[in-house]
């Protein structure tokens, strides 16, 4: 088996993983005003926040390029790959996963799987890293898919945002429109539900209480088993460190990392968001 993995730029990956020759990463364009950018190529994360602050309208994102994915699959076929796994941001926040299903039939010489990650960011990156490692260790294709599904089923994220406008106007929050105009009195906690859709989980009165509630929720959802846990933020280092310290004080800092949301996800969450993502160690 010669396996390649394809993902998108929302997956948080280390530089050494990004350099693997059997990994391909699809760009997701960010529109700020009338200009389209590709993060990491003609837009740094710092520049993204500066341009977002200066823009009179909220940034927008589009889906990865279907043509580019088709081109990568053709290239992999010509290079003698036999198997492909594509792991992309949740179908609950992007239509890309639904739109690529037909491609598997276009390459009968390749065994292709596109499991729905139902997540994004660091947990998605963990799935990509694990898949590459399992393949290198000689795990067969069906067993890799079984392990991936086990990881997907145990993965989620809970999010605290400063401003719901980004999510509601972007159509990424299924039940949040009723909260607009009421943010002075509440600090909503959001989460990825079982279908990978972002919904309101609870409404808490203050940020301090919301962070405490996030810590309690993390304890509840990870009580059985071993998990990787990521504190993920969009230019909210102080809140992320506060979250980390609270967990450390409780003895919950094992397998815990602080990472940043990329510009694509920050487009929809806005500046100041902090989240925790958790995924089982399979």
Secondary-structure blueprint:
Blueprint: E1 3-8, H1 15-18, E2 23-26, E3 30-32, E4 35-37, H2 45-54, E5 60-61, H3 66-78, E6 83-86, H4 96-99, E7 111-113, H5 121-136, H6 141-153, E8 156-160, H7 165-169, E9 187-192, E10 198-204, H8 207-221, E11 227-233, H9 237-249, E12 256-260, H10 263-269, E13 274-280
Parallel strand pairs: 1-2, 1-6, 6-7, 11-12
Antiparallel strand pairs: 3-4, 3-5, 8-9, 8-13, 9-10, 11-13
Helix pairs in contact: 5-6
Q: Summary?
A:
This protein has helices at residues 15-18, 45-54, 66-78, 96-99, 121-136, 141-153, 165-169, 207-221, 237-249, 263-269; strands at residues 3-8, 23-26, 30-32, 35-37, 60-61, 83-86, 111-113, 156-160, 187-192, 198-204, 227-233, 256-260, 274-280.
What spatial order of strands do you see in the largest sheet? 10-9-8-13-11-12
Mean pLDDT: 90
| End-to-end gap | 22 Å
Number of domains: 2
The Rg value, from CA coordinates, equals 19 Å
Tally of individual helices: 10
Uncertain regions spanning at least 5 consecutive residues? none
Oligomerization state: single chain
- Looking at the structure, the CATH topology of the largest domain is Hypothetical Protein Tm841, Chain: A,domain 3
Q: Sheet bearing the most strands, described?
A: 6 strands, mixed
Please tell me what the overall shape is.
globular
Helix content: 25-40%
The CATH architecture of the largest domain: 2-Layer Sandwich
Strand content: 15-25%
Count the E strands: 13
Strand/helix succession: EHEEEHEHEHEHHEHEEHEHEHE
SS-based class: alpha/beta
By CATH reckoning, the class of the largest domain would read Alpha Beta
GO molecular function, one term: lipid binding
Keywords: Lipid-binding
InterPro entries: DegV (IPR003797), DegV_C (IPR043168), DegV_domain_contain (IPR050270)
Pfam families: DegV (PF02645)
């Amino acid at each position: 088996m010669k396996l390649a993995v394809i993902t998108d730029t929302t997956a948080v990956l280390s530089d050494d993983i990004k350099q693997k020759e059997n990994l391909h990463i699809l760009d997701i364009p960010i529109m700020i005003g009338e200009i389209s950018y590709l993060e990491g190529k003609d837009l740094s994360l710092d520049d993204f926040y500066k341009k977002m602050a200066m823009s009179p309208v909220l940034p927008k994102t589009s889906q990865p390029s279907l043509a580019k994915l088709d081109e990568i699959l053709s290239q992999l076929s010509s290079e003698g790959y036999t198997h492909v796994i594509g792991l992309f941001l949740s179908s609950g926040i992007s239509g890309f996963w639904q739109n690529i299903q037909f491609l598997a039939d276009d390459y009968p010489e390749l065994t292709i799987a596109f499991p729905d990650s139902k997540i994004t960011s660091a947990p998605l990156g963990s799935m990509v890293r694990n898949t590459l490692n399992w393949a290198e260790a000689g795990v067969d294709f069906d067993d890799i898919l079984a392990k991936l599904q086990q990881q997907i089923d145990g993965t989620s994220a809970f999010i605290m945002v400063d401003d719901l406008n980004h999510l509601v106007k972007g159509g990424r929050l299924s039940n949040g429109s009723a909260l607009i105009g009421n943010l002075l009195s509440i600090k909503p906690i959001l989460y990825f539900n079982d279908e990978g859709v972002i919904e309101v989980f609870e409404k808490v009165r203050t940020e301090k209480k919301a962070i405490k509630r996030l810590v309690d929720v993390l304890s509840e959802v990870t009580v059985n088993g071993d998990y990787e846990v990521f504190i993920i933020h969009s230019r909210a280092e102080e809140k992320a460190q506060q979250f980390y310290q609270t967990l450390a004080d409780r003895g919950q800092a094992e397998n815990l990392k602080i990472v940043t949301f990329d510009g694509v996800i920050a487009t929809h969450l806005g500046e100041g968001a902090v989240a925790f993502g958790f995924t089982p160690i399979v």
